[in-house]
Amino acid sequence: MSDWDSDKSPGWGDEPVEPEKDTKPLFGRKSPKLPPESGRDWKLIEKLVMSLQAEQRRSRRWGIFFKLLTFGYLIALLFMLKVPFGDTLSSVSGKHAALVEISGPIAADELASADNIVGSLRSAFEAPNSVAVILRINSPGGSPVQSGYVYDEIKRLREEYPEKKVYAVISDIGASGAYYIAAAADEIYANRASLVGSIGVVAGGFGFTGVMEKIGVDRRLYTAGENKAFLDPFSPEQEEEVMFWQGVLENTHQQFIEAVKQGRGDRLANDERLFSGLVWSGDQAVELGLVDGLGSASHVARQIIGQEELVDYSRRKSPLQDIVDQLGVAFGAGFASQLVESRLELR
Q1: pTM score, two decimals?
Q2: Which of 22, 168, 230, 239 is least enclosed, having the fewest CB within 10 Å?
Q3: What is the 3 state secondary structure string of 96-127?
Q4: Count of Cβ atoms closer than 10 Å to residue 288 Cβ
């Protein structure tokens, strides 16, 4: 028998070595066996992935939080618009002195407009438990039309409710159109340092003709009607137009004077400077008869009206409007109107 037919294994060379069998399959383990260096790298990668996932979860949570915060803010803002904070007039049950604020410029587009003031006055007079009405004034004046509306309405309400007196109290300033309104009250009070008076009329504007010549701008104005371009700030000033406008101012001034004389009567001193547009302190105003005495709104309520409780009937800005105004959105429009327009004002 040859060696090829033998059952024995060959006798020369190295015997074949069978590979060591692993009891666990390679792909059945949770992770393959790696060299120590590779294992550390894998753990670092795993930590990095986990940290990125945690950061994403935190970002989502903060995003949800800020969305909820914004939504809550909008809900609170809408709530303030619908239900203003503070005491409501419906909660007032006892006798009281009604307060109406006149603050800031008197103009149709301001808080101290005739619509707002007249509406507040009507509410104050119509309230069954209001004993008297106090006008707390802190205004440099403004539109003679708006002031005249309020003046006439105070006169009408005094006739309709003769049992309720009206007291005007000037704080820092009650000048021009503001004093026009105050003159309709039964009595006027101020602080000794208050600024009172300025019984006059003013209208102003700008002339740009010199500037236009320097920069080479031509004015091209087309009108139908010889006075349609009356007092145009971009055209040369015309003497006859100035004289006409002065007549308008004088007429408005005379209306102002008559209203003050009708309201104050014999209490006014015989002083020709009263209607010259000068401003007086509270002490001087008492001597001139422009003011009846010195005192604050609370003093008038307690000492003169005899009521401790003072209830505010003034119309206020909505919270949203207040925020917009604080942001200064209307600054540009206001500046442009002051620059170009020539407005008639009691000042």
Answers
A1: 0.68
A2: 239
A3: EEEEEEEECCECCCCCCCHHHHHHHHHHHHHC
A4: 20
Instruction: For residue 34, give the amino acid letter.
Output: L
Whole-Å CA distances, 323 to 157, 317, 334: 34, 10, 17
- CB contact at 8 A, 171 and 191: yes
- How many residues in total does the chain contain? 347
Name residues whose C-beta falls within 8 Å of residue 248's C-beta, 6 or more positions apart in sequence: 344
Cβ-proximal residues to 233 (8 Å cutoff; 6+ apart), any chain: 205, 206, 207, 208, 340, 342
d(CA 338, CA 346): 16
**What per-residue confidence (pLDDT) applies to 37?**
58
Residue pointed to by tokens 């301001």? 110
User: Quick one: tokens of 169?
Assistant: 């109290």
Between CA 57 and CA 154 the distance in angstroms is 65
Least confident of 188-202, 209-223, 316-330: 316-330
Cβ–Cβ contacts within 10 Å for residue 258, how many? 10
